[in-house]
Specification:
By secondary structure, the protein is α/β, with parallel strands linked by helices. Helices cover about 30% and strands about 20% of the residues. The chain is built from 6 helices and 7 strands; from the N terminus they run H-E-E-E-H-E-H-E-H-E-E-H-H. Strands 1, 2, 3, 4, 5, 6 and 7 form a 7-stranded mixed beta sheet that branches. It starts with 16 loop residues before the first helix and ends in a 6-residue tail after the last helix.
Length: about 200
């Protein structure tokens, strides 16, 4: 993007999707908004939307356990094991919404030891050995490398989340950035990180 537009600089800011929407709604400078799920968009004032949201990629859930898996978790059927330290995302953030949908679909209501502000905080609990298992996105497990062990959730019961992107300013390069993300080059970068094209 920067090479194609000499003199431009792309500055990225990361946080939980609900936090990003709140920051932009309160006046934080931004040209493009990309979220890990559609739910937080409900809280973005309509006057800030400069384009229609477009789903630019998708993600699905995975279980993350410590590398030595001391609780012996083998799949979602173990989530209701008595005494299991299960950590999930707070329900108002996209990974929490997806987790709620997963558990509802499974017809289970496991005990949760902790609800974290986002997927990063959730998987950190697992990395630190403070949880036996966390429910996060597949890309979070991939990004954690050998700090966690990922356990797949069968596609028949898994939850797929679409990630929206939209312009929130009239900057001439906002649309160009979105087109770059949607391009073959942008989609390849996302695929390399474990995301799946919509």
């Amino acid at each position: 993007m920067e090479a194609d537009h000499p003199g431009s600089t792309v500055e990225l800011s990361f946080a939980a999707s609900s936090t990003i929407v709140q920051q932009v709604a309160e006046g934080a400078p931004a040209d493009v908004l990309a979220l890990a799920g559609p739910g937080p968009l409900d809280h973005l004032p309509a006057e800030l939307r400069r384009s229609e949201p477009v789903v630019f990629t998708t993600n699905s859930l995975s279980l993350a356990v410590p590398p030595d898996n001391p609780a012996g978790v083998t799949g979602v059927e173990d989530l209701t094991t008595e005494g299991l330290r299960l950590v999930v995302c707070q329900p108002q953030v996209p990974c929490g919404e997806a987790t709620s949908a997963l558990l509802t679909g499974l017809g289970i209501d496991p005990a949760v030891s902790s609800q974290e502000r986002d997927a990063r905080a959730t998987i950190t609990k697992v990395e630190l050995g403070e949880a036996d298992v966390g429910i996060v996105y597949r890309t979070d497990v991939a990004a954690a490398g050998d700090r966690v062990l990922g356990i797949d959730i069968p596609g028949a019961v898994n939850v797929t989340t679409g990630y929206p992107i939209l312009a929130v300013s009239d900057h001439e390069l906002a649309a160009a950035f979105i087109q770059e993300v949607l391009s073959g080059r942008g989609q390849q970068h996302l695929a390399d990180a474990g995301f799946v094209a919509p």
